[in-house]
Amino acid sequence: MSNDRAPCAPELAVRFMLDVDADAALLSRLLAPFARRNLTPDRMWSHRSGRIMHVEIAMEAMPEGAVPLVEGNLRQVVGVRSVTRLLPERRGSGA
What we know:
Layout: E1 11-21, H1 26-35, E2 43-49, E3 52-63, H2 66-76, E4 80-90
Antiparallel strand pairs: 1-3, 1-4, 2-3
């Protein structure tokens, strides 16, 4: 019996940790790189500390090829001061 399913692209659990300007419109702009790729983060957390907001956006299974693209887009958002990407583990294989 043949397997008709297409091989899955590898997926990664990924967290983006950002320091951004405390701006009311910035949180929605941070979601745009995900939305353009039809990706919905599993978790988004933010905490304001004075003029800076600390933000975490995480996905349990993000297509590996989308990770550097989303990271690059996050770095281009006006008001983003820093982006740190954490890749804890590979979630799938191409087999």
